[in-house]
Amino acid sequence: MVHFTAEEKAAVTSLWSKMNVEEAGGEALGRLLVVYPWTQRFFDSFGNLSSPSAILGNPKVKAHGKKVLTSFGDAIKNMDNLKTTFAKLSELHCDKLHVDPENFKLLGNVMVIILATHFGKEFTPEVQAAWQKLVSAVAIALAHKYH
Amino acid sequence: MSLTKTERTIIVSMWAKISTQADTIGTETLERLFLSHPQTKTYFPHFDLHPGSAQLRAHGSKVVAAVGDAVKSIDNIGGALSKLSELHAYILRVDPVNFKLLSHCLLVNLAARFPADFTAEAHAAWDKFLSVVSSVLTEKYR
């Protein structure tokens, strides 16, 4: 089980409290689809994904991004208990959504980059390290029930 | 995988800004790498890795200078980095997974320093460019 120090938890929660989760969610999912276009394979029903501006302006992308990032908020409230927190979601991603867990790592890294653009200097190497630990642990938790 | 004209333009124009902070970007990228991915320190047992160390600064400059060489010869990255490719294949033998980690930390650094320039399109171009650089550096591994 991953253990987060008090400093790591503080680094995570302080930035999270300043984030507009709705906007950031759309940005994160949008960037995933732009930077790693093969991830679009999961979103055939989303309509126009033909260009970066189409993707970032797409209302379905924004809505789904918000959903994903809101769920990430659960991770932050349960940093000591991620595997249990994401057990059901893990089963869903395996059995119904058929998502390769590699994609969780890609999204995690995109989120880290978005945090960097929003927080600039405040996103110090130490703060980044705490977030990398979190996104990695969430990715592992989401893959935990795969079979 | 090769870069489109648009992607090359994005890289080259951003590099003009980046090169003015090249040395600090290099050092900070390595700091981020060692903090976020401590296993990468195993390649530097001979270094003083404390933030601000002279060796870190020198090595950071080296790394960013090499990226700069790739930018300046963006139409022929393989040619520009041929010697460096041999160095990594025969002497350094850094496991290929680490190039992704270093690339990510450089992107984080660019995103933090140039948020307005680091649009989704620029992010995609840089990710792809660093992926090409990484491929060149590992292409002689076996």
From TrEMBL, chain B:
The keyword Transport belongs to this UniProt entry's keyword annotation: yes
SUPFAM superfamilies in the record: Globin-like
Gene Ontology MF terms: haptoglobin binding; heme binding; iron ion binding; organic acid binding; oxygen binding; oxygen carrier activity; peroxidase activity
Pfam families, A to Z: Globin
PROSITE patterns named among the record's database cross-references: GLOBIN (PS01033)
GO BP annotation list: hydrogen peroxide catabolic process
Alphabetically ordered keywords of this record: Heme, Iron, Metal-binding, Oxygen transport, Transport
InterPro entries, per the entry: Globin, Globin-like_sf, Globin/Proto, Hemoglobin_a-typ, Hemoglobin_oxygen_transport, Hemoglobin_zeta
Functional note: The zeta chain is an alpha-type chain of mammalian embryonic hemoglobin.
Domain Globin: residue ranges: 2-142
GO CC annotations, alphabetized: blood microparticle; haptoglobin-hemoglobin complex; hemoglobin complex
Protein family membership: Belongs to the globin family.
Entry protein name: Hemoglobin subunit zeta
Keyword Magnesium: no
Organism listed in the record: Pongo abelii (Sumatran orangutan)
